[in-house]
Write a structure and sequence with these properties.
- The chain is mostly helical.
- The protein has helices at about 10-25, 30, 45-65; strands at about 40, 45.
- It has one domain (about 10-65).
- A two-stranded antiparallel ribbon has the order 1-2.
- The longest helix is centred in the C-terminal third of the chain and has 22 residues, at about 45-65.
Length: about 70
Amino acid sequence: MGQTSYFMSDKKIPKLVGLFFLGILLFNFPIINLFRKDQFVSGFPALYAYFFLVWLVLIIFIARTVRSKQNDK
């Protein structure tokens, strides 16, 4: 039986740190303030649409970074 390593490769850590700081930047006040106006996107307030879209994109990028096989070696 092969051994499974539960540790990440060293190449993934800087990408995850970068995604963390990108998330902090995108959820910070100056950018969120751009969407606080009474604008609607498909019937939803623009601020809610922005929160869920950025949240979804960050989750997808994090999942792709963690699951990528090319950086494991």
